[in-house]
Every structure is written in C-alpha cells, then in structure tokens.
C-alpha cells in the first residue's frame, strides 16, 4: 500500500530527478483509502471528477505551493476512471490525468524490442495517436536505458519537463507515457536527465515528421497507411528489365527564378515527374530526403531517419510525390544512409549520456572523413532501429528500393584509417562483422516483408558477393554500383584521342569481372563535385570534340551490360560542376538549338531505344548476353560487341573513339542478313557531323575476326552506333 510521499520525493519530482513518477502520481490504494496525487504547477485548486457520472468526488489539497496536490476519495475502495478539474489563473480546465493509465507496451512488442528483432519497431516506439479507455491522446515511447529521468515536453505542456515524466520499463530500457489531449500537429521533444545528471533535450529518433531546419522539434503525426507494391512496380525492378535511373537532389534540380527558393514536393510532382517520363528514365533515385540539419551535407548526414525533410513540404506531400511517380510508371529509389550520423546535440549523439547509438571508442565510432559518428551495429536495438527504418520507407511510402550509401565504410573497420587508428574484430581481422550481419539481415527482411523492392550498394572495394545471397556468404544486395567501370571509362575518355590506343584496356577490363556482381553503371553526383569537373568538361578537345566525345561515351554506356544511372544535369551536358545551392543550368537549353539540346535529345532517345530492345537489357547479368566482336583494335580505338536476348536476337554496338571517320570498316558478325542503324550518336539531330549508314547494310560472305560473314560500315568520328538485324 503506497503512503503519502515525503518531502524529499516531492522535491525530487519538482527538480526533475524522480525516476519513477507512477509510484508517486495518479491513483493509489493507501491505508487511508483511495488517494489521488497530481503534479500541476501553477494550479490553484483541483477536483477529482468521476468520468462515468461527471460527479465531483473530492477536492485535492495543495501540499506544496509549487503545485503538488493530494487527496483521499471518501468511501471509495476500488479504482475508477477519473478526470481532474484544474483551476489555472482563474480558468477551470477539465483534463485527463496521464498517471491513471497502466503500462502501454504490449507483451509481444516488449519481447521483440528486447530481442532486437521487431520487424516494425516504429509501430511501438515514437509518438502514436491512440485512444485508451475512451480518452484520446498520444502514447510516447523512447529507448534511453541509462537515463535517470525522461519527460515528454511539448506544446501541450508548455515545454515543462516537470509535467510529464515517463514510466521506465527497466527490462527494456524504454520510457513510456500516454498523454491525454496531445494531438497530431503538436511539437514535442524528450527532456532527458542523463546518467551523469546533465539535462539533454532530444528530438525523437522515431519522429515521423520534424520542424523545418534550423528548428529541431519533432511533430506528432500518425503513421501513414501501408501501401501495396503493385505487380508493375515489382516487375520494373527485375534483373532482366531496362533500368535507367535519374539521380536527383530535390533542392537543386530546379529552383524558383525569382527568389532561388526550393520547389515544393507538389511542384516537383508537377514538373520533375513529367520530365523524367518524357526523358525515358524508368527510375528516380532521390538523394537522401531524411531530415538533416545541414544543407551542405546533401542529406548524407541524416538525423531524422523516419521523417522526410520539411524543406519541400509535409510528410503527406512527399507521399503524394511518390504516388505521382508511380502513376507515371516511374519507380522511386531512396538514397539511404545507415553508415553514419552527425553529432548535433539534439540528435542521437550520447542520447542518454552514454554512447548509446554510437561506439564509445572513436576508433570504432567516429568517421574521420565526414566528422560524423558510426552506429554500433552490434547493439541489437540500434540495428533494429535501422532495419526497421528500411522497411518503413517501403511499406509506408511506397519506396521501390534503397541505394545504400558508403557500404565499404561500414564493412571495413580500417576504412580510411591508418595503422593503430582502428580496432580489429574478435578474430583479429579488418571486417566489421556486426555491420556485415546487419546488412545481410536488412536485405533478408526486405526480401521477405517487401517482395519486389530492391537494394543497391555503393561499395567501392572488391568485397566478394555484394549481390549474392547471404546464405552463400554474400551481402544480399540486388545491385551494386560499378565504380571500377566508372573510373576506368572516365579515365579513358579524358585522354586525348591520340593517346587512347595505349589505354585500350580501360574500356575492356570491366568485362573480366562483369558477371561477379549485378552491376549498375553510375555517373553520379560524386563525379561532378569537389573539383572533378562536370562530365562534359572532362572530355578533351575543342567544343565540337567535347560534345562528340560525350555523345559517344553515352552511347557506349547505354550499350554496355549493366543498369544505367545518370545524375541530373548530365543528360543535357551541364558545363559547370553541380552546386547544391542553385538550380541546374536550364538556360543552356533555351534559345537557338545547340549542342546541349543535341545531348538532351540523345539521352532521351537512348533511354527509349534501350527500353524497346530486349537484347540491350534482358541478359545484363548472364554471359550469354554479351560477346566481343572486335576487342583488340588498339590502333584505331574501335570497339565492337554484341548484346543478345534469350531468343538470340542481337544488337551490335560499335564505338569509334577517335575524331577520324573510318569508311569501309569491316568486322565479322554472327548473323547473316541486313543490319540497320537504330542509334548513331553522330547524327544531325544530336548536332553531330551526320556521318551515317543509311538504309540496310548487308553482310558479305567475307571472313573476318574468325567469322565467315562480315559487315562493312562507315564509322563516324567520335561516335557510337547501334545496329539491329532486319527480319528476313
């Protein structure tokens, strides 16, 4: 039987140092009878009202002028539902007492959270509107096992941490509280007295919406409804499908011309989605949209993993943007950053006074490259927080896949570290076994709970089996960026054509390892910043040669095995490096038709042609889908290969990477008959010299390159051709 609290307990409660408020506040059975105690700062008088009858049961006595009230309910032995009629500054308010409600976490949720195996921890932790015993409000739950006290503070309680201290579920390290009357749209945070007695004000790690930066409060809002992944979207992610990805930074794709302000999610749905559809891209990849404090991080230093950034509008407006993409037949990939997070005070860093989400040892927990903190993947609650987040975007927003950032930095403990700056694993090796386990686990979860969705690894080393099943020792990703291909081919293209003959292998080497992974060929944002120059500006020669080189390179890229990715601006040959603070240079497409318009039309036609012809995509990851016809013509810097589909239909791709036209260039082919150009990057429409092979070119019974029949073509200068066999 609980008794009247002593002065020390009351003082601790007002000081915000009382860790077990439910033992003190609410309704209790005592030797004197049912007793109600309430902490109501600045109240003048308080009555207990029986909920069922609306009858006044008792007036509470003010035991402490700071606002502690207590009173015995006469002639009542059994607990009952009640409200408090509180007089504040002459105005009476009828409120429900947060401390009359029992524990909130369901037994199964508690079990799964404790194990770190909860498939959807976001359904339990965070802030959720609910009704308990007919009372509408919000239940809050937060993991902070080492805190001395946690309170919810917000617009509903004057941001006063004394008013709503939480119940501690010691077995889980979770604090919980149901606050009647707290409703969607209200702002809140957690006020934490940490393990050393310091006060910390933290945003909710599971907040579904947040304030616009530089403000940092979380916002109460309901979980969005689950979305079903339709069969068309599942099919569009298939290994045998044409996948051409348009990578976008929403804050700088296009801006308002009058004030340089961002487009909203609504405006982006109206402008970006139709543009992507017209250009023939199959997927949009959004650079990170998780809430982040610093614009200059481009979203790669996220703190609100469950909240889309408010920079462009509300959470629901972002959902409508995704739906607009799906209505247009476009899948959406989200750039996802589970590898590190910033150390801002309101975020995850030292959340309860300890290194809770991060490692305590900076050799494990600090990213030297980005001055950020590294998640402790070995802590089950942390890995559960992240894996649950991956599923959240699929189920609640309809995201079709995740591009996972900086995988190499996660899986190697010595990543970008000198000797003595890293801690080996328990076997003495350099692999981060906990991170590897986390990635495998997350990919398995998505495969089972969100079938049809995909993950794409940005992994910059030769770690084996990134896109192989975890059961076979792989990481379980669906795709991997082919950064080796990207570096090699760009190194080749930046050479003066006269020197390319000495570096022929840069264009052929990729085929030696092409089938070790399921590759995406990326020309991403990383290649047009930090002094690397734009893709156009890396091309050698005068303006004509620069654009011709770029067009030939794009023709090669779209013909080569692997899915495609282009960063925004590459599609019209933006000349300057990308700047996240301004719009792309759309003015380059204005006025008289020019070279930029030519590249723009080329990329559109490459996409549509690539999607139309199955040999260009159906067997990307099958050796039967590719064959070299000419691989060793170093002197002329000419390459010829075949792409093939399951039925044996072929597309021939020919590239001439010198500014010299080559008439009567003969090479052997597999199939006799007539061949027709379906793509020529030198044609007039693209502002080339319009050197063409018009009509149908027929094979000759002349042996060449080990084949009994051959074609003789005119190869345009600095150009790529695609040819399809005419049906007999």
- Distance from N terminus to C terminus (CA atoms, Å) equals 95 Å
State the shape: elongated
Separate helix tally = 14
What does the largest sheet look like?
8 strands, parallel, barrel
Q: Mind telling me the C-alpha Rg? A: 31 Å
Secondary structural class: alpha+beta
Mean pLDDT equals 93
**Uncertain segments of ≥5 residues (pLDDT<50)?**
none
Task: Give the amount of beta strand, in percent.
Answer: 25-35%
Side-by-side strand order of the widest sheet: 16-17-20-23-24-25-26-27
DSSP helix fraction: 10-25%
Annotation, overall tally of beta strands: 35
Describe the structure.
It is an enzyme of class 2 (transferase). Its EC number is 2.4.1.18. Monomer. Belongs to the glycosyl hydrolase 13 family. GlgB subfamily. One of its GO terms (molecular function) is 1,4-alpha-glucan branching enzyme activity. This protein is of the alpha+beta class. Helix content is about 20%, strand content about 25%. The protein has an eight-stranded parallel barrel, surrounded by four helices. Strands 1-2-5-4-3-6-7 form a seven-stranded antiparallel sheet. The longest helix has 18 residues, at about 380-395. The radius of gyration is 31 Å and the shape is elongated.
Ordered list of secondary-structure elements with their pairings:
Elements: H1 7-15, E1 26-30, E2 33-39, E3 43-50, E4 56-64, E5 68-72, E6 82-88, E7 91-96, H2 107-115, E8 126-132, E9 135-143, E10 149-154, E11 167-169, E12 174-180, E13 187-193, E14 199-202, E15 218-219, H3 231-236, E16 244-248, H4 265-279, E17 283-286, E18 290-291, E19 304-308, H5 315-327, E20 331-336, H6 362-365, E21 366-367, E22 372-373, H7 380-397, E23 401-404, H8 407-411, H9 433-449, E24 454-457, E25 479-481, H10 483-493, H11 505-508, E26 519-523, H12 535-538, H13 543-559, E27 563-567, H14 595-612, E28 626-633, E29 638-644, E30 650-656, E31 662-669, E32 674-680, E33 696-698, E34 709-715, E35 719-725
Parallel strand pairs: 16-17, 16-27, 17-20, 20-23, 23-24, 24-25, 25-26, 26-27
Antiparallel strand pairs: 1-2, 2-5, 3-4, 3-6, 4-5, 6-7, 8-9, 9-12, 10-13, 11-12, 13-14, 13-15, 18-19, 21-22, 28-29, 29-30, 30-35, 31-34, 32-33, 32-35
């Amino acid at each position: 039987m609980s008794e009247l609290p002593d002065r020390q307990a009351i003082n601790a409660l007002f000081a915000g140092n009382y860790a077990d408020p439910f033992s003190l506040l609410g309704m209790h059975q005592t030797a004197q009878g049912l007793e109600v105690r309430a902490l109501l700062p600045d109240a003048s008088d308080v009555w207990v009202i029986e909920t069922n009858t609306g009858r006044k049961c008792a007036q509470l006595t003010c035991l402490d002028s700071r606002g502690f009230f207590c009173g015995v309910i006469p002639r009542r032995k059994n607990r009952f539902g009640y409200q408090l009629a509180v007089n504040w500054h002459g105005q009476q308010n009828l409120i429900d007492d947060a401390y009359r409600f029992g524990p909130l976490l369901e037994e199964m949720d508690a079990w799964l959270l404790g194990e770190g195996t909860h498939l959807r921890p976001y359904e339990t932790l965070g802030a959720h509107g609910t009704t308990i015993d007919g009372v509408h409000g919000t239940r809050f739950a937060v993991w902070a096992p080492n805190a001395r006290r946690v309170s919810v503070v917000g617009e509903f309680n004057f941001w006063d941490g004394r008013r709503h201290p939480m119940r501690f579920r010691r077995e889980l390290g979770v604090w919980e509280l149901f606050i009647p009357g707290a409703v969607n749209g209200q702002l809140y945070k957690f006020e934490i007295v940490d393990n050393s007695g310091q006060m910390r004000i933290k945003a909710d790690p599971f907040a579904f919406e947040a304030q616009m930066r530089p403000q940092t409060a979380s916002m109460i809002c309901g979980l969005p409804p689950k979305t079903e992944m339709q069969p068309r979207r599942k099919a569009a992610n298939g290994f045998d499908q044409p996948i051409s990805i348009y990578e976008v930074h929403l804050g700088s794709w296009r801006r308002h011309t009058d004030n340089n302000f961002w487009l909203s999610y609504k405006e982006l749905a109206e402008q970006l989605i139709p543009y992507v559809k017209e250009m023939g891209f199959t997927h949009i990849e959004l650079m990170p949209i998780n809430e982040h404090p610093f614009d200059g991080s481009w979203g790669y230093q996220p703190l609100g993993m469950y909240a889309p950034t408010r920079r462009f509008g509300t959470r629901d407006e972002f959902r409508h943007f995704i739906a607009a993409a799906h209505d247009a037949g476009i899948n959406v990939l989200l750039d996802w950053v589970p590898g590190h997070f910033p150390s801002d005070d309101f975020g995850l860093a030292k959340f309860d006074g300890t290194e809770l989400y991060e490692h305590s040892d900076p050799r494990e927990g600090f990213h030297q490259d980005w001055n950020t903190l590294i998640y402790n993947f070995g802590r089950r609650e942390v890995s559960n927080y992240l894996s649950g987040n991956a599923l959240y975007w699929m189920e609640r927003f309809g995201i079709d896949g995740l591009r996972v950032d900086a995988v190499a930095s996660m899986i190697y403990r010595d990543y970008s570290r000198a000797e003595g700056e890293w801690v080996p694993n328990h076997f003495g090796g350099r692999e981060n076994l906990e991170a590897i386990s986390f990635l495998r686990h997350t990919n398995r979860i998505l495969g089972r709970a969100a079938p049809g969705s995909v993950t794409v690894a940005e992994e910059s080393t030769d770690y084996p089996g990134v896109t192989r099943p975890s059961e076979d020792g792989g990481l379980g990703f669906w795709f991997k960026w082919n950064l080796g291909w990207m570096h090699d081919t760009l190194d080749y293209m930046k050479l003066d054509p006269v020197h390319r003959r000495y570096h022929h292998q840069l264009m052929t080497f990729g085929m030696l390892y092409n089938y070790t992974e399921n590759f995406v060929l990326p020309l991403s944002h990383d290649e047009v910043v930090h002094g690397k120059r734009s893709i156009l500006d890396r091309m050698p020669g005068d303006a004509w040669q620069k654009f011709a080189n770029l067009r030939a390179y794009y023709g090669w890229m779209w013909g080569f095995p692997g899915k495609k990715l282009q960063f925004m601006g590459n599609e019209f040959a933006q000349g300057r490096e990308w700047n996240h603070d301004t719009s792309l240079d759309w003015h380059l497409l204005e006025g008289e038709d020019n070279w930029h318009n030519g590249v723009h039309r080329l990329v559109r036609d490459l996409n549509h042609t690539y999607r139309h012809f199955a040999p260009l995509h159906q067997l990307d990851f099958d050796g039967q889908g590719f064959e070299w016809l000419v691989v060793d013509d170093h002197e002329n810097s000419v390459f010829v290969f075949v792409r093939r589909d399951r039925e044996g239909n072929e597309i021939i791709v020919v590239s001439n990477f010198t500014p010299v036209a080559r008439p009567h260039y003969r090479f052997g082919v597999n199939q006799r008959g007539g061949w027709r150009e379906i793509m020529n990057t030198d044609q007039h429409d693209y502002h080339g010299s319009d050197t063409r092979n018009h009509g149908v070119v027929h094979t000759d019974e002349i042996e060449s390159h080990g084949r009994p029949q051959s074609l003789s073509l005119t190869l345009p200068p600095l150009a790529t051709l695609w040819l399809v066999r005419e049906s007999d």
